[in-house]
Specification:
Elements lengths: L1 E5 L8 H11 L3 E3 L16 H14 L2 E2 L2 E2 L9 H21 L3 E4 L11 H13 L2 H7 L2 E5 L7 H11 L4 E6 H6 L4 H8 L3 E6 L1 E5 L2 E8 L8 H10 L5 E4 L7 H16 L11
Parallel strand pairs: 1-2, 1-11, 2-3, 4-5, 5-6, 6-7, 7-8, 8-11
Antiparallel strand pairs: 9-10
């Protein structure tokens, strides 16, 4: 099991700065967030030459590109919107292949209509993702549906993945969302087992009466059951990344060393990293 972080921790940093921080704080990988105005330069608009240079930057420093985080979503009633998302997904799959990234993160998305049946929403998203599977296969890249938005619970995300039934479609397990929406680790795992390709970690506290009101916490000080989730992953032989997603709650120099140490303790690999706060 590996640890990584998303570029949201310091969107103003260049790719070189992110890679330097990964090395400094003992991370195995980096997850560029695309189409969000970050300064790392990893976008579908990058040229073939730029893609080769980016791939070489990762290879030269020994940091992996664990996933491309996109904001792609498919829960639209209009066929033209869905078709646009499918074509954009194919472009991201090619970008990932060119960079050597094994995964791209996608969302199901919240439906624009009020009261839409979950079965209808799952069918919509599944039909869209099914159109991407041939490209995913040819690129050798996994699509990771995040437990997020209308599909926060693993049981709801699994309805999509089950319907597509393709080995290149699995889950990005965001442990926060399954927990705050009432699933225990074992309940989530019953739907996710064997199909988790990437994970997002970040700690929060929330009121059981209103799980949408979340307050950030340092890793290990919140309510997300990371230790148990990671135990389930470890028992299953998960070899992917636990990727920290911190969006404006902490300074990079604060959260990166703290989270690396806590994640290593949960993984139990005995690694000790000395934080360089300079």
């Amino acid at each position: 099991m590996k640890i990584a972080f998303m570029t949201f921790v310091a969107p103003e940093w260049s790719l070189q700065q992110h890679l330097a921080a990964a090395i400094r704080y003992g991370y195995d990988g980096l997850e560029p967030r695309c189409a969000a105005g970050h300064q790392h330069g990893v976008e579908v608009s990058t040229t073939k030459r730029q893609r080769r240079e980016i791939r070489a930057q990762f290879a030269d420093c020994g940091v992996e590109i664990s996933c491309l985080a996109t904001s792609l979503r498919y829960n639209f009633p209009e066929p033209t919107q869905v078709a646009e998302m499918v074509e954009e997904t194919k472009r991201y799959l090619q970008l990932a292949a060119d960079l050597g990234a094994p995964n791209i993160r996608v969302f199901g998305g919240n439906p624009p209509e009020q009261g839409l049946a979950r079965e209808t929403a799952a069918q919509r998203v599944a039909e869209a993702l099914a159109q991407c599977m041939e490209t995913a296969d040819s690129c050798g890249v996994n699509l990771c549906l995040e437990t997020h938005d209308f599909f926060c619970r693993a049981e709801h995300a699994a309805a999509v993945v089950d319907a597509v039934n393709h080995p290149r479609l699995g889950f990005n397990w965001d442990m926060l969302h399954t927990a705050r929406h009432g699933e225990t680790p074992e309940q989530s795992w019953a739907h996710l087992a064997g199909r988790v390709y990437h994970c997002h970690v970040h700690d929060y506290r929330w009121s059981p009466e209103n799980p949408d009101e979340i307050q950030p916490a340092l890793m290990g000080e919140g309510m997300v059951p990371h230790a148990e989730d990671i135990r389930l992953l470890k028992t299953a032989g998960y070899a992917g990344a636990l990727s920290g997603e911190w969006i404006g709650d902490w300074k990079a120099q604060e959260i990166l060393p703290q989270a690396a140490g806590q994640l290593r303790r949960w993984i139990g690999d005995g690694a000790q990293w000395i934080a360089d706060s300079g």
